[in-house]
Amino acid sequence: MGDVFILGAGFSQAVFCGMPLLADLSLRVGALAQSPASRRASSTPLFAGNVELLLDYLCSRQPWHSEEETLSNRAAFLMLSRAVADTVSEAENHSFSTAPPEWVVGLVRAWHDHRAQVLSLNYDTIVERVACSSLEQIVEPHLWRLPVCRGIARTSMVFGGTFPATLRLLKLHGSTNWYYSGNFDNPGDQIYYVAVPRSGDDKREEARQLDEEHVRDKVPLVIPPVATKTGFYANDTLRLLWHDAARAVSAADRVFLIGYSLPATDLTLRYLLGTNTRARSGQVHVVNPDVGIERRLFDGVFDSRNWTAGSDFVGGLDCVQRFAEWYAASGAAGGIASQASHVSEGRL
How many alpha carbons fall within 13 Å on the CB side of residue 341? Predict the structure, then answer.
């Protein structure tokens, strides 16, 4: 049995209530959008409250733009990407001033024990920080399994090695601690990472600061989850990342959508799910407080002739916690919880 987990912003907010959803992120970042191009575009009603749609517009070559306007927009995109990464990182660092809840630690350990395939659409590093602090001898590259180098590797030797058996974390929209040149048309552009903090580990903090120093000329790799982001996928590492995600989905018997609402604009993920599940049958389980999301599952994504929907964890602000506790206790062994025991009356 293969389980695939798809994490959206609702997952991060369930772990820490201070993590922003899209509307809140857009509001916070809007105050930092100081370039003329981003101010012009953000004043358009089309982009109101949706910084990811604005990012997509700025990074795309529009057919009516002059070369000067295109380059100005691309510069604004890089500045806005940094503002998004800084805003998410600030919220994450503030959240980690307190320990993460036990249920998410238990869920990450269950993912580790069962070598789960976890597809994250979030920019934050919550899963990495929980894994690195709760799983013995696990560091970020063990989770990603990609040719992503530490920042300090730009001035030192890089040695190969093997990865221990653990969960696989595929960050399809980039990460606040991944850095690149800002030129997403270059297939061979190396991606670097900065180690995530670990409370009380002074040696790791020193190494993390060295990484930050070595990527000071780089830009956070933030990929807007909207329809026209295919320009990013000239990069060989990102193509490998999505190739591995497709392989994971094509082998899945159960797909769990945790805090992810399948927005119509995220065509790339819709294509990935729709084309890589058509030859299999299985179950898709929604973990989301939004009771209307189930109706969107079979709207051109999953084939209703082969896939069935589970709604045991739809509804209720504690739906992610309820799911995590169930999965860590017994869900990884197969089957699905009954609504009667996990969803109180009135939640659905």
Answer: 6
